[in-house]
Amino acid sequence: MTICPLPQVMLEPLVRAALLEDLGRAGDVTTDAIVTATETARVGLIAREAGVVAGLDLALMAFRLIEPRIEVTVERPDGSRLASGDVIATLAGPGRGLLTAERTALNFLCHLSGVATATASVVDAVRGTKASICCTRKTLPGLRAVQKYAVRVGGGSNHRFGLDDAVLIKDNHVAIAGGIRAAVERIRSRAGHMVKVELEVDTLAQLEEALTLDVDAVLLDNMAPPLLHEAVAMVGGRILTEASGRITPQTAPDVAASGVDLISIGWLTHSAKVMDIALDQHG
Predict the structure, then answer these.
(1) Among this protein's residues, is 138 annotated catalytic?
(2) Does residue 170 carry a catalytic annotation?
(3) Catalytically annotated residue among 138, 186, 188, 273
C-alpha cells in the first residue's frame, strides 16, 4: 500500500503547539540542569508491542524543531507492521534536544500508531469481504487530519472530514424537518451537484422510503446482522450501504458478511488504545 504523507505545513502547527505546551515558561528545567550542552546520545524509537506505525513524521519533527542537529535514520516508516522489539528509527545528536522533545514525539507516535493498529485489526477481521472500514467525525479536537491519516495508514478509509464536504442526514435532522422526504428535498434544493447525500435509517420501513428518494448512500444504524442482510438485499446495489453501531473486530465479520459496502467505527479515533513505543538507548 502506498501511503501519501501529509504536507509538513499541516503538521508543523500541531507539533509546535504541543512543544510549547510542554516547554511552558522556563523550558526543560530538568534536562537543562542534568545534561550539558556538549553531551550527545544515540537512541532508538522501539516498539514494545506489535502494531502498525503511524505518525513518525510528527515525532521526528518534534526532535528537529528542538534540535536541528539531531540525525535520524528511519528503519520502519509509517505503515510498517511491527513486532515487539522492532526499531522504528534511530536518532543521534545533542542529548538535551533528544530528551526535551521525547514526550511530545512519543505522544504523537504512540497515539497515532494506536489508531493505525486498531484500524488494521478490524481491516484484518473483514478481509475477503467487500466491506471497507472507515472512521467518523468522532475525533479528538485539533487532531482530525492526523487521526484520519492514521486510519488510512492502518488500511482504512475516511468518512467526511467535516460538516462542509458531504451531507449526512441523521435522525434529529429528520425529526426537525418533519420527515425523511422533507429533509432530503430541502437538501437537494440547496446542495451543489458535487455534494454526496447520505441518509441514516434505523428500520426497513425508513429504508424503503429512502430508496424512493434522491440519496447516494444509506447509513444502516445499529442494525443486527440478520436485519443488515435484509437491508442490503432491499438496496440491491443501487446505492452505497454503510453499517455503524458499536462494531468491534469480533463483531465486524458478521456485519461484513451482510454485504455492506462500508463499516464506520467511531472508537478507532476517539478511544483507540495507544501503542507502547519507547525512546531507549540504542547502539
Answers:
(1) yes
(2) yes
(3) 138
Give me the percent of the chain exceeding a pLDDT of 90.
98
196 has catalytic annotation: no
Contact partners, residue 21, CB within 8 Å, separation at least 6: none
Note the pLDDT tens digit of each residue in 34-50.
999 999 999 999 999 99
Q: Which of 75, 221, 254, 276 is catalytic?
A: 221
Residue 114, H or E segment: helix 95-125
Distance of CA 1 to the CA centre of its chain: 16
Contact predicate 154/115, CB 8 Å: yes
CA distance linking residue 205 with residue 208, whole number of Å: 5
In three state form, how does the secondary structure of 173-235 look? HHHHHCCHHHHHHHHHCCCCCCCCEEEEECCHHHHHHHCCCCCCEEEEECCCHHHHHHHHHHH
Question: What are the pLDDT digits (tens) for 65-119?
Answer: 999 999 999 999 999 999 999 999 999 999 999 999 999 999 999 999 999 999 9
Q: Is pLDDT above 70 for 1?
A: no
Average pLDDT over residues 145-162: 97
221 is catalytic: yes
Of residues 69, 127, 130, 170, which has the active-site annotation?
A: 170
> In what side-by-side order are the strands of the sheet with 217-221?
132-134, 262-264, 240-244, 217-221, 197-201, 167-169
Where does 1-92 have alpha helices with state H? Answer: 8-23, 29-34, 56-66
185 assigned to active site = no
Domains of the chain with bracketed CATH: 8-123+272-281 (3.90.1170.20), 128-270 (3.20.20.70)
From 28, 198, 200, 261, active-site residue: 200
C-alpha torsion sign, points 128, 129, 130, 136: negative
Out of 16, 42, 48, 103, pick the active-site residue.
Answer: 103
